[in-house]
Amino acid sequence: MKQVICMKWGTAYGPEYVNVMFGMLRRNITGDFRLICFTDDSSGVRSEVECMPLPSLGCEIPPDVPGKWPKIALWGKQLGGLTGTALFVDLDSVIVDNIDCYFTHGDPHQVYTARNWVRHFGKHGQTSVFRFPIGENSYMLEDLQNNPAEISRKYRFEQNYVTDHVKGGVKFWPEPWTKHFGIHSQGIWPLRYLRPPVLPKGARIITFPGHPKPPDAIVGRWSHVRKHKPQLEHLKWVFAQRKTDRRWRRFISRYIMPTKWVEDHWRE
């Protein structure tokens, strides 16, 4: 049985993200699978999804530390009675092709991640999509519990901790499989005014760290608090920000055209 895990806590993602994830998995996995959602609020989630309480991190992360440290709770010795291997997928990911290969690739006792696209030339992992053997690396959680402030401040982001702390190191998926929407689809900022984001050749999962999110990409907006504007209107708005925002230049790159292929794939 193929096992996929996601996590939903707080208010960042509504139940529609989980429901869409199930739909994408159903279209892109051969045969039976389980989607297990660890969450603090299962309301609105479709019945086919197995909702379980969030696993306890067992320690406090300082409030000034960024990153998604609750994900480290997945490395505990016990995880909701699950056994074997599991594929973790962030809820703000879009599955665009069959992902059977993520379950069969390589050694099931190794940890597989995407290579960090921002720090591409290093051996750094990116944990939007990773596969791990459940319970076999419980020291990851235990070590954090023993020294949460020092470890979290040292690594800042949980994916850096995973990369450096997994014994034997993480392994990487084949390069084309997992891509970053901002880097590989949108490209450098001038292109964003000339064409919609592209679907990278050979990609199977597109991740959406930061902004925009999949629903925003569909309609062509940077975040849900803004409406889509044609190119010239957006640039006029950007230059108007000079009077009130000293960092107005950052808005120049925050433009996106409506993206049809995201609409085609991000649905129940």
Written description of the protein model:
This protein has 268 residues and is α/β, with parallel strands linked by helices. The protein folds into two domains: 2-173, Spore Coat Polysaccharide Biosynthesis Protein SpsA, Chain A (Alpha-Beta Complex); 179-265, no CATH class. It is built from ten helices and ten strands. It has a seven-stranded mixed beta sheet with strand order 3-2-1-4-7-6-8, with helices on both faces. It has a three-stranded mixed beta sheet with strand order 5-10-9. α1 links the parallel β1 (2-8) and β2. α3 (139-146) packs across α4. The protein is globular. The model has no long low-confidence stretch (mean pLDDT 95).
Which characteristics define this entry?
268 residues; alpha/beta; Spore Coat Polysaccharide Biosynthesis Protein SpsA, Chain A; 2 domains; 7-stranded mixed beta sheet; 3-stranded mixed beta sheet; 10 helices; 10 strands; 28% helix; globular
Element layout with pairings:
Blueprint: E1 2-8, H1 15-28, E2 33-39, E3 50-53, E4 85-89, E5 93-95, H2 101-104, E6 112-115, E7 125-133, H3 139-146, H4 148-155, H5 158-165, E8 171-172, E9 178-180, H6 181-186, H7 189-192, E10 205-207, H8 214-219, H9 231-240, H10 260-265
Parallel strand pairs: 1-2, 1-4, 2-3, 6-8, 9-10
Antiparallel strand pairs: 4-7, 5-10, 6-7
